[in-house]
Design a protein that fits this description.
With about 325 residues, the protein is mostly helical. It has two domains: about 210 residues, HUPs (Rossmann fold); about 90 residues, Tyrosyl-Transfer RNA Synthetase (Orthogonal Bundle). The chain has 13 helices and five strands. The strands form two sheets. It has a three-stranded parallel beta sheet. The protein has a two-stranded parallel ribbon with strand order 4-5. Strand 1, helix 1 and strand 2 form a beta-alpha-beta unit. Helix 3 packs across helix 12 and helix 4 packs across helix 7. The longest helix has 30 residues. The protein is globular, with a radius of gyration of 21 Å. The two termini are about 35 Å apart. The structure holds adenosine-5'-tetraphosphate. Adenosine-5'-tetraphosphate binds next to helix 1.
């Protein structure tokens, strides 16, 4: 029997952080053993925010190396650069023509990201349509995403259903796969907003490549709440976020962690959390250093990945072009 397909991607903006790991990469790692997996560096999405070209190029390669260092295995999964597979934007155009302005206006991520901007580019607005194209192109059954991306995935489903209804069955309807823990890691300084890799305040995030000294400084500075009891609750968002990171990295239960720290101060929990993060990221950083220096290996992974991805993408796109009425080349 054919394996089910999973598809996910991260845009190469900012620095990959522990939120991205817990919300995405950790799940990818587990899922790649069970599913046919395609993991993209979605570089075209990254253009929706201002980029320095040389930095973007470097970051794209760095992200591929970090994917592999986090356990994504190019022998099991397809790792590809979105811009290497031109079918993404071609399908996006078809989906654009099916998507309503009102649907995109409702996207909370667009509202958040455009909030304080003077000039908002159209790419930021149509980002969810490109994401739908990323997913539908590969006939993905399952899309592992953090809770923040759920609304985008719903749009992908709606567009697939709409296309299938209008032109006949073409796309699989993708299901979200949202992890139980780590789905929404919050900012260290402002625990009411999510941790984001391109946050301009680097104290808000733990980057996967942060040095041990920086990790220590950031966790020590992380906002905790008034009171002294180590308890996971809504009125203690800062502390609860630290417990979330703790339990997601150790796979311990929240109640067990609360129990362990009865009568102990916040500083004790922070000290242990620093150790947990350092121990966890150590081997990833070591592996990363090896991979990033082997440019030939990275080029080979990407060339192999884009060849396999393009093969699948072409199959879907030619079906779509035929159904919408384009003349065959
Ligand atoms: N705080 C988070 N907690 C759990 N999961 C998260 N993800 C992002 N932030 C958290 C998941 O990581 C993947 C990143 O994909 P993306 O870069 O395409 O999207 P994003 O949601 O815009 O991520 P960031 O970190 O907020 O990036 P920037 O700051 O560049 O916009 C997704 O699977 C997401 O759910």
């Amino acid at each position: 029997m054919n394996k089910k397909i999973i598809l996910s991607g991260i845009q190469p903006s900012g620095e990959l952080c522990i939120g991205n790991y817990l919300g995405a990469l950790k799940q990818w790692n587990i899922l790649q053993d069970k599913y046919e997996s395609i993991f993209l560096v979605v570089d075209m999405h990254a253009l929706t925010v201002d980029q320095v070209p040389s930095d973007l190029r470097q970051r794209c390669l760095s992200f591929v190396a970090q994917y592999i260092a986090c356990g994504i295995d190019p022998d099991k999964s397809i790792i590809a650069m979105q811009s290497h597979v031109h079918e993404h934007v071609e399908l996006m155009w078809v989906l654009n023509s099916l998507c309503y302005l009102g649907e995109l206006n409702r996207m909370t991520q667009f509202k958040d990201k455009s909030k304080d901007k003077k000039n908002v580019n159209v790419g930021l607005f149509t980002y969810p349509v490109l994401m739908a194209s990323d997913i539908l192109l590969y006939q993905a059954d399952l899309v592992p995403v953090g809770a923040d991306q759920k609304q985008h995935l719903e749009l992908s489903r709606d567009l697939a259903i709409r296309f299938n209804y209008k032109y006949s069955d073409t796309f699989k309807i993708p299901e979200p796969f949202i992890p139980e823990s780590g789905a929404r890691i919050m900012s260290l300084q402002d625990p009411l907003k999510k941790m984001s890799k391109s946050d301009s305040n680097l104290n808000n995030i733990i980057a996967l490549l942060d040095s041990n000294a920086i990790i220590k400084k950031k966790i020590n500075r992380a906002v905790t709440d008034s009171g002294s009891e180590i308890k996971y609750s809504e009125d203690k968002p800062g502390l609860s976020n630290l417990i979330d990171i703790y339990t997601s990295l150790t796979n311990e239960k929240i109640e067990d962690v609360e129990q362990k720290y009865i009568g102990k101060m916040y500083s004790v929990l922070k000290k242990d959390l620093i150790e947990i993060i350092i121990d966890f990221l150590g081997p990833i950083k070591e592996e990363y250093t090896k991979i990033i220096s082997d440019k030939a290996y990275l080029a080979e992974v990407l060339s192999d990945g884009s060849e396999k991805a393009s093969f699948k993408a072409r199959r879907t796109l030619s079906k779509v072009y035929r159904k919408v009425g384009f003349v065959k080349k």
